[in-house]
Specification:
This protein folds into three domains: about 5-245, P-loop containing nucleotide triphosphate hydrolases (Rossmann fold); about 265-340 and about 425-503, 3-Layer(aba) Sandwich (Rossmann fold); about 355-420, no CATH class. Helices cover about 35% and strands about 25% of the residues. It contains 17 helices and 24 strands.
Amino acid sequence: MKPVLIMENISKTFPGVRALEGINFEIFPNEIVGLVGENGAGKSTLMKILAGVYQCDQGEITLRDQKVQVKNPQEARTLGIGMVFQEQAVLSNMMVYENIFLGREKIFTYNGLLNRRTMLKEAKKILQEIGIDLSLQAYLHELNFMERQMIEIARNIWLAHQAQVNNPLIILDEPTTVLEEEEIKRLFDKLRELKKKVSFIYISHRLKEVVELCDRVYVLKDGKNAGCFSHEEVTEEILRSRMVGREFHEEYYLISKQRKPAEKVVLEIRDCTKKGSFYNVSFQLHQGEILSLCGTVGSGKEELCRVLYGETKLNSGEIWIDGKRVNINSPSQAFALGIGYISEDRRNEGLILHLPVFENITLPIIHRLIRGLLIKREEQFRLSQEMMTKLQIKAPSPLVLCFNLSGGNQQKVVIAKWLLSNMKILIMSHPTRGVDVGAKHEIYALIRELAENGMAMIIMGDSFEEDIGLANRILVMKDGKISGVLDATILKPTPTDLIQYVV
């Protein structure tokens, strides 16, 4: 069987950075091929070359036995190459069938009028083909994340049909980032079914999922091939070792560096209720403590954290900081009280991507750097450089746009801006989401260091293991109430210990 795609000796250089060097990659019909590597390893660059976003400096692409030059995303689509990004390209205020044909409405326009009946008929046909049962006239905001992903896949398959391409190629970029376990299982079942018609490239930092799903897995490191493994031989340990170029001989969570928190209470929640979200919640947070909030989606943990950051308000209850009762009605009030919040959606809520690193890092304290009508640029630059060094942010200079950083380094920029702001309390929602194993290790070490220096943190981890490994104490929420409290400073509980309080 001949490959659908062959990428040979692909190289790409950006100013000051050798992103790819002699990469080889291929995919066969009816295959799901994994692509893994640390942040900055070159995964996104390679796929953007395939999708026509970038042009390679050297190398060849052979698609269905024909040498091609993918000059732009439009040309990629005509060649049957589609990409489903982590940040979904759908419009939530439009219906399912409208999103499937987004940007291609002209095909259904006759004498200046849009023939919606034909659109609905064609949409029904494509959804039936891929085995998705959705209301064509449902709005996208009514669907869950996985269903919206399937709409994007349907769009790409339809575009391939329009271009009269057999066996299209679809790139999935971190498709399970915000999915729950049951949704991941459903997605995998659907991908296994669809690979009879479509070849998939699956990019993910979740190595367990890659090992489970993919027929073959390519590893990139520092812009070079670091191995290719079949489903039969691949393991998480092999991938981890090839990705980082080293074995993790030291403790993964640095548990030996965990310290007992101080006695001082920096935050106290007393009988707090937010109707529809959580009820009569009470707990204390100590100086230097890492407190994990666990629970399923809808347990109330996310809403509780947003209350603490002033994004939504309590119906009843009290919040005390450093022994004084406070009212938090806005993020600016939370900031003034020394509370910072790191959202799981760093690209939309944590950063201004098209501003450089130094401006993002100093954004919360910009008022301190104004002299007259001018910003003290030298001081702004100096502070950002110090943070970049302290947090080991990998970027050629503070002038680099945040958009061009890897996910792990973007997250470090978000942490840096709150660290520079001298926060007493830091709330972190999924601090390592979309971050590779090496960057996770660095962020875990940083969280430990912040706690050791006296910062109190509330963390909603990406997994039970992450919550357990980082926390001094774990609060489990279920149906809007605290269902369990577990000490994790000395003797760590197991995931099984947590589950009994979660479900």
